Amino acid sequence: MALVKLQTDNFRNLISAPAFFSPSMNLLYGENGSGKTSYLEAIGYLGLGRSFRVNRHQAVCRHGEDQFVVFGGLDPGVAVDRGEASKPVFELGASSPEPQDFAHRLGISRNIVSKETSLKVDGQAVRSLSTLAKHLPVSVIDPGVFDIVAGSPGKRRQFLDWAVFHVEPSFASAWQQCQRVTSQRNQTLRNGRLDDSLLKVWDSQYSAIAAAVTSARKSTFGLFKDAFDVLLAEVEVPWLSGLKLELYPGWDSARPLEEVLREHRDQELKMGHTLYGPNRADIRLKFQGRPVAETFSRGQQKTLVILMKIAQGVVLSRMGKQVTFLLDDINAELDGEHRAMLAEKLRELKCQVFITSIEQPQPESLWRKTMPDFKVFHVEHGGLTEE
């Protein structure tokens, strides 16, 4: 699916007029503070259910207002199985397509006073964010994404779980259940006294759901690793030849998790939280036996993250899913060669892409071989003008 219509209300400084995008490439430019990133942020809400910039919903709601709304109309996008463009469900040049013309309609609103969130798919209220997000796989490449390599294990878990969610339909509910059991187990550990019988109950439940979560992660990681290895052979990056990517499930999986938990009971009681299991999973990146964060330069780390993001797109592409990539201010992070490499690979994957920049875009510098279909928009004072 591809987002071809976006309309917001009280979302940062964006005007409420509808915007119509290409199911392929979209280039947005404008001065700092014009609203470029806010458009990407609004799109991200439909695929992630949250902002990729801030943690609080209140931050995106226009000052003085109690509620913001984001609506999106989806097109079947680009067929990825045979490399053929699918027929749009409506003509992009049309000024006001009827609601039934969309393949899907997504909506999210948040009342910051009552702290209530409303989700809708095709006009029907849904309770689960996963029901909304599954229709629009959104992948963000912004300055913060490069922490996937050098940042905490949580960053890499989040990176992996995004793909697992879109590959394994049962993963979302399993991971939510795992988090609930982990929270209950942590409360028991924080009581400061050993309630062995209660901990045994939580250990049993935790181990069972951990098996399901870990199985889904291992399966998707295998697909990702295969795609990543093929990609390395294509882009000719010789300094990556000694790189190893391994999935650490969160404990020594050669032993049953319940056994590991029993052995480290005193340690967990002292710390007051769960130290082993899926909540501690990580993608371990090593070069010649040492962590990549210690051996790669900042530029090399950026290249690695880009390739990892592209490999995720390959995995979903092979499943017939079109990813919407949000590339925010990549001119400040990547040189011309790396921008061209990223843009070309995303074109080959037939992804939908949104790229922001301060300077007026130069499509010929991004796509040097085959020019894709694209639209250019100037952003000013929260408004979008197609050029």
Domain count: the total is: 2
Which homologous superfamily in CATH is the superfamily of the largest domain? P-loop containing nucleotide triphosphate hydrolases
What is the CATH architecture term of the largest domain? 3-Layer(aba) Sandwich
Helix count?
A: 12
Low-pLDDT stretches are 79-99
Shape: globular
| Secondary-structure element pattern, one letter each | EEEHEEEEHEHHHHEHHEEHHEHEHEE
Helix/strand structural class = alpha/beta
In short:
By secondary structure, the protein is an alpha/beta fold. The protein is built from 12 helices and 15 strands. It is 40% helix and 21% strand.
Please give a structural write-up.
The protein has 387 residues and is of the alpha/beta class. The chain has 2 domains: 2-137 and 323-386, 3-Layer(aba) Sandwich (Rossmann fold), CATH 3.40.50; 150-292, RecF/RecN/SMC, N-terminal domain (Glutathione S-transferase Yfyf (Class Pi), Chain A, domain 2, Up-down Bundle). It has helices at 36-48, 129-133, 147-150, 153-167, 171-190, 196-235, 257-263, 265-271, 292-295, 298-318, 336-349, 363-366; strands at residues 2-9, 19-20, 25-29, 67-75, 104-111, 116-121, 124-126, 138-141, 243-248, 282-287, 290-291, 324-327, 352-357, 374-380, 383-386. The strands form 3 sheets. Strands 2-1-4-5-6-7 form a 6-stranded antiparallel sheet. Strand 14 (374-380) and strand 15 (383-386) form a beta hairpin. Helix 4 (153-167) packs across helix 6, helix 5 (171-190) packs across helix 6 and helix 6 (196-235) crosses helix 10 (298-318). The longest helix has 40 residues, at 196-235. The two termini are 24 Å apart. The model is unreliable at 79-99 (pLDDT under 50).
